Amino acid sequence: MTLEGRRIVCDYGPVRALAGIDLHAAGGEIVAIVGPNGAGKTTLLRVLSGERRPDRGEVTLNGSRVSGSDAAWRARIGLVSHRTGLYEKLTAMENLRFFAALHGLARSGRKLTATLDAVGARGLAGRRIEALSRGQRQRVALARSLLHDPEFLFLDEPFSGLDPEGAAGLERALVARRNDGVAVVLVTHDLRRGLRLADRVVVLRRGRKVLDGEAAEDEAAEILDHFTAGAPDP
Ligand code: ATP
């Protein structure tokens, strides 16, 4: 099971966000995408998940083109982006029930509670989203993305707003999914965590891939160099 982006180009008007990127992610691996502000990380994640169509290039799963308008593909992915997509007036549990129904899943209360538990959000079940802190919302958004046991997880800055205990819990949850064969692709500014967690680290700079390698300790210095070299991208 391999997801592959080939020669991906994305423009926002005159801004070339991605300038011909090749990237693959296989079941059972965690890929961390790192790079300075504006490097194209979020855009690449959106393209890989099917949320945005590339202007050129293609995304394929085992050779067949993937599209965000394909409900069958959406059912196989979990996505956590800057927008949580949660309903503010509903409680965490009501949100999970709603999204479970949307996926056509009959999830028992126990299963939903277990999903909240996996990201340390059990105590938030009865709380409305509008009354939650940023980190608490992030936990519920993560629970939502895991709800339907997706085969692919796309996470944009999933650790942002999480306290150390929440971050450690999320790491455990992601490793468990990876060990179950899920492909996890995450964008992070936390390079050290990315290096520790990921099987492969991809470094972007100005819309280009400058490094794609096994996340071994001896490569850490090289990756850090790429990551920190020069000023942030305009
Ligand atoms: P950050 O680390 O700051 O989140 P990033 O690596 O995720 O950045 P992107 O958000 O993918 O980078 O942005 C890549 C480039 O595309 C940047 O130059 C950005 O200004 C531009 N861009 C992103 N979204 C839009 C948009 N909606 N309209 C115009 N330009 C955009």
Which key phrases capture this entry?
234 residues, alpha/beta, binds adenosine-5'-triphosphate, 4-stranded antiparallel beta sheet, globular, 10 strands, 6-stranded mixed beta sheet, Rossmann fold
Helix-strand pattern, N to C? EEEHEEHEHHHEHEHEEH
CATH architecture of the domain at 1-70 and 190-234: 3-Layer(aba) Sandwich
Number of strands: 10
| SS summary, helix count | 8
Mean pLDDT: 90
Looking at the structure, the CATH topology of the domain at 1-70 and 190-234 is: Rossmann fold
For the termini, the CA-CA separation is 36 Å
Uncertain runs are none
Fraction of residues in H or I helices: 25-40%
CATH class of the domain at 1-70 and 190-234: Alpha Beta
Main sheet overview: 6 strands, mixed
Write the layout of secondary structure elements.
Blueprint lengths: L1 E11 L2 E12 L3 E5 L6 H9 L6 E6 L2 E2 L5 H4 L2 E4 L11 H11 L6 H10 L15 H13 L5 E5 L7 H16 L3 E5 L3 H7 L2 E6 L2 E7 L5 H9 L6
Parallel strand pairs: 3-8, 3-9, 6-7, 7-8
Antiparallel strand pairs: 1-2, 1-4, 4-5, 9-10
The protein binds adenosine-5'-triphosphate.
The site of adenosine-5'-triphosphate has 11 residues, from strand 2 and helix 1.
Write up this protein.
With 234 residues, the protein is of the alpha/beta class. The chain has a domain at 1-70 and 190-234: Rossmann fold (3-Layer(aba) Sandwich), CATH 3.40.50.300. Helix content is 34%, strand content 27%. It has helices at 41-49, 71-74, 92-102, 109-118, 134-146, 164-179, 191-197, 220-228, and strands at residues 2-12, 15-26, 30-34, 56-61, 64-65, 77-80, 152-156, 183-187, 200-205, 208-214. The strands form 2 sheets. Strands 6-7-8-3-9-10 form a 6-stranded mixed sheet, sandwiched between helices. The protein has a 4-stranded antiparallel sheet with strand order 2-1-4-5, covered by helices on one side. The relative contact order is 0.19. The model has no long low-confidence stretch (mean pLDDT 90). The structure holds adenosine-5'-triphosphate (ATP). Adenosine-5'-triphosphate (ATP) binds at residues 12, 15, 17, 35, 37-43.
